[in-house]
Known about the structure:
- Keywords: Membrane, Transmembrane, Transmembrane helix.
- By secondary structure, the chain is an all-alpha fold.
- It has helices spanning about 20-35, 45-65, 70, 75-90, 95-105, 110-120, 125-155, 180-200, 205-225, 230-245, 245-255, 260-280, 285, 290-300, 315-320, 325-330, 335, 340-360, 370-375, 390-395, 400-420, 425-445, 450-470, and strands spanning about 10, 15.
- Among the domains are: about 10-65; about 285-360, no CATH class.
Amino acid sequence: MPQKESPSFEIGKKRLPSAWAFTVITGAVLSVILTLYLAPSKYPIADLIAAFSLVIFLGMFGWHRSGIAAGCKPLTPLIFMLLYVAALAFSNGTEDGAQTYIKELIFGFLPFFLLYVVFRNQVPEREPSLLLALFLIPGVVHLAFMYLDVFVALQKGNIPFSSSSKQGMLEYIKDAPRVGRRYLSWALLHLLCAGWLMTWRHKHARARYLAGAMTGLSILSLALLDARAAYASVAFSGAVLIFVIGPGTAWRKIRPYLPTGLGRIVLVCFFMVVVGLGYSAGKSRWISMSYSIKAATHDVFDSQVELSQRPFVDESYWSAPIKDINACYLEGHFRCKVDQSAYLRTAWILTGMQSLWDHPFGIGYSDDYMGRLWGVAGEPGKFQRGDNFLVQHVVSFGVFSLLFYAWVIWGVLRSTRRAIRSGRASVSLVTLCAIILVCAGRGLVDVFSEGLWRYFMALLGMYYGLLHSSARTISNDLR
């Protein structure tokens, strides 16, 4: 019998020898881009590589085969968002701030189209391997740097280990990673997706043990980082995805991967260790969370203090050095009694939602949008902006921003549900839907900026590239 030829791709008059060569080269380039997007201040380098790569892929496939025209359709809500931002800026005189926002939004289209073109034209048999590499490599790189940074900090004596009624023994570990908890926790969440894909993709026991070890290390690392925003976003993603898939279908698909017997006991013990580590790494924050939320609610709605002097407006209140930290805790001073992150995030979210009543169409974007809302724009020692994607858009652009971004997420959910019902949904597609939902949940309590926004758009590009691929065959993964 004649041997079956390996698939190949044309570049002008030349041909790549095999689909594997294309996948390996593509995976290496895209992994570098995504790794750089998850490192603060490295995103301009990733943008240059992405732009160069997109030109090459468009030259390989041509305009029609690339499917870029079809890829524009999922971006319709963001295109409307651009038009709305421009119109609002013209009407209220915030053109300078609008230009900055529009530029960042448009730059996100670059990784979207790059990943869309690649996955739309990828050989179906290689799609899971490519997706696994794009989750695995950036996650492993950032995980390695995390423990390197922790080791160096320990060598220098920068991580004190002291336990008290107010603080846990591991509370200072989360300050060691150079990229910061926001970027690192994002990378670790994607590493969890890599562990799941490896478990599904490889049936051999060794591969599954490796995937389990990698997943376990990622979860332990998230616990050491005290990444509460990551915990909340995973819970949000899981709840929404189960609702979309259906509880019965979701349970039937997850159940075969759950351990039995001794493995179940090991799993329970593991999560007990995770809870213990997470509590020790953020004890002061956990025990003060309830009080912090109540205090923020009071200061927004019931405080008699002048607005400019309230703690969630006064940045200098939090930046002033504490002379005696022990006395601050023992005497119950507000600054040490409250969790700064929980207090400020809660107050800013409530203030942002409150602004919809007075400014339903937003006040326009600028670097001092919160300062303008509070009437303290430009004043030294006052917060000028929030650290929250939701608040940023509610205050700056009002209710329409909520509608446009909800439209983006709704498009993913609706297409995933349709793909599942028609039998076209692969595990890779559902995994991408899950991590996109994690990002959406993260935006409710955290900020998307620069590289993180581009990474989110790259995920959308992967998702719609898989969904629109003309080479896909009907999958039985979720039937």
